[in-house]
Amino acid sequence: MEETTLPKKWRTFKLHEENPLNNYFKQIDLQMADSTYNDYWIRSQQEDSDYLGKLLVEEFKFRADMRLNVVASLEGSQGQGKTSAGIYLSLLLGKIFGKPFTLKNLAFFPEELDSLIEHSEYKETFMMDEQMRTNVGIMSHTIQQRLIDIEEQIRYAQNSLIYCSPAVRDHSHYFVFKAENPIRKQNPICLRCKKPDCSVCEIPEYERSGYPERIKLMLFTKRLTDDLLVPRGYIETPMPNYQIMQEYEVLKQKHIEELKKKESKMWEQMKNLAEIIFNQNKENLIMQTRKGYKVATAKMIEIMLFDIKGMRYFTNDGKNLMITLIKQKAQEEIIKKGLNTEGEDEV
Predict the structure, then answer these.
(1) What phi-psi label fits residue 210: left (phi over 0), alpha (psi between -120 and 50 degrees) or beta?
(2) Considering the chain, what is the average pLDDT of its residues?
(3) 2 pLDDT exceeds 90?
(4) Is the pLDDT confidence value at 127 over 90?
(5) Longest C-alpha distance within the chain, in Å?
(6) Interatomic CA distance for residues 208 and 185, integer angstroms
(7) What is the pLDDT, as a whole number, of residue 209?
(8) The CATH classification of domain 8-240, taken from the options 3.30.310, 3.60.21, 1.25.40, 3.40.50
């Protein structure tokens, strides 16, 4: 069996040993016990990416054999290839665990993933693509709790989950990957072409210059000594086949349309809830003073919200938006009834 081609002090581990990746990183952590994050970053640049990729595959095989699963997060900005790499890793896990992955096991919303898991079979792989999320963050605490519950559920069924998002969230993941700019094709014919419009080109899109060939990922795992997430080294994944990426684009476009509807529905629900809260607390929201009437302060409204069922799941942005809606309702009520005001209320 081949040993790593890294400097001699790292040549202590062979492929196909038990729990390969964990054991390899454990040896490194023990030798770097007093090292800083920057030291780990420098070491990660020297890692043999081919060897690290082989170790990762061996780790996936070990987990499949030992009744374990894989939960991995991929982060990166739009266009850096995290979704493409996520699909490739999902296909790889499907092959290793013996249950082929298809885009039927791709979810864009936690409730979709929840439904897929509910009807899943043992050892299936699922992918959660959160790339396009925006205002849904108003209820992100609820979403986060649901994902934690899902991760607990899939552990027992040996289901694996690949999670893609612009930034890493708090999951029970062991593997974290950060996508960098893809390595793209360089077709000599394209380089000589002077045509301004590529859409009429006879060369297939996946053969043209600029189409991604491989995705470069930095692997992070937690350090043995203190659970700090540290960089381990680069791996490269090939692009999934062109057909499955085209199928993904169709699903993504459908998701964007559904997201717009979902955000619109959520906004209407927020306004309706603000109306209910205002009607139930009107006497405390509009206060009479010696100079006239004024709206309750934001702090006073925030205290009222503590007693409202479900409000604890709102993020600070969601809570502040609700306070603004309620204050607006109160101000409209003062104007409608022609009450004297004493000026701007305290924020």
Answers:
(1) left
(2) 81
(3) no
(4) yes
(5) 87
(6) 7
(7) 87
(8) 3.40.50
